[in-house]
Amino acid sequence: MRSDAGTPTDAELINMATAGMAAMLNCCVPGEVISYDPTKGTAVVRPAVNDAIPSEEEEDADVYEQFPPIYNVRVVWPRARGMAIVPAGAALAPGDPVLLLCADRDLSMWAAAGRTANPQESGVHRWSCGAFAVVGLIPNTNPFPTPTDALALASKVDALIEALENAFTGIPVDGAEAALNTLAGALSSFGTTASETFKTSA
């Protein structure tokens, strides 16, 4: 509620200041890949939701502007204990969607040291030093493809496991050579066509 003079009240000033700070707070937004560097694991990403700016010409209205690209965005792939799942080849192509997030603090020193570190920049929620992208977020217009290759790989793995079980179940000691031959045959039938879709690296 405004005062009789028409000036904002203390509560209104606090609310406006809080809203202004929240509007400048970078947190999480869908992103679109512009380019990807597989050697560094970083990308150039543009936020895929435009910025809403209060109109100077019309009260209680917004104008929309596209955010500028964000550079050196660390790309997060499924990874743990020396294992990672990264598609072979370029991995990310221009136009691919990602979930773009902004850390509370500067990530650069932590990334360089690999342990707890002091931030190089003192600011908070800055795209320039705290941005990272998680692969997997997709719009409704881009459904998951039919996992034919993944099913083929799973089928080969199942066949290999079954062959191993059959080869080493109830065999006598003197039948070890025959069992090894059976194992070699099973391994030779395990092709790489399906597994080339993904690469596992340290």
SSE inventory with pairings:
Blueprint: H1 10-23, E1 28-37, E2 42-47, E3 51-54, E4 62-65, E5 70-76, E6 79-80, E7 83-87, E8 97-102, H2 108-113, H3 127-130, E9 131-135, H4 148-168, H5 176-188, E10 198-200
Parallel strand pairs: 5-9
Antiparallel strand pairs: 1-2, 1-8, 2-5, 3-4, 6-7, 7-10, 8-9
Helix pairs in contact: 4-5
Please count the beta strands (DSSP E, at least 2 residues each): 10
The radius of gyration over CA amounts to 27 Å
Alpha plus pi helix count? 5
Top-tier CATH class of the largest domain = Mainly Beta
Strand fraction equals: 25-35%
- Summarize the helix and strand pattern as letters: HEEEEEEEEHHEHHE
- So, the CATH homologous superfamily of the largest domain? Gp5 N-terminal domain
Are there runs of 5+ residues with pLDDT below 50, and where? 192-202
Main sheet: strands, sense, barrel: 5 strands, mixed, barrel
Termini separation comes to 60 Å
Alpha-beta content class? alpha+beta
Helix content: 25-40%
Second CATH tier, the architecture of the largest domain:
Beta Barrel
Q: For the residues shown, what is the average pLDDT?
A: 76
CATH topology of the largest domain: OB fold (Dihydrolipoamide Acetyltransferase, E2P)
Global morphology: elongated
Count of individual domains: 2
Give the strand line-up of the largest sheet: 1-2-5-9-8
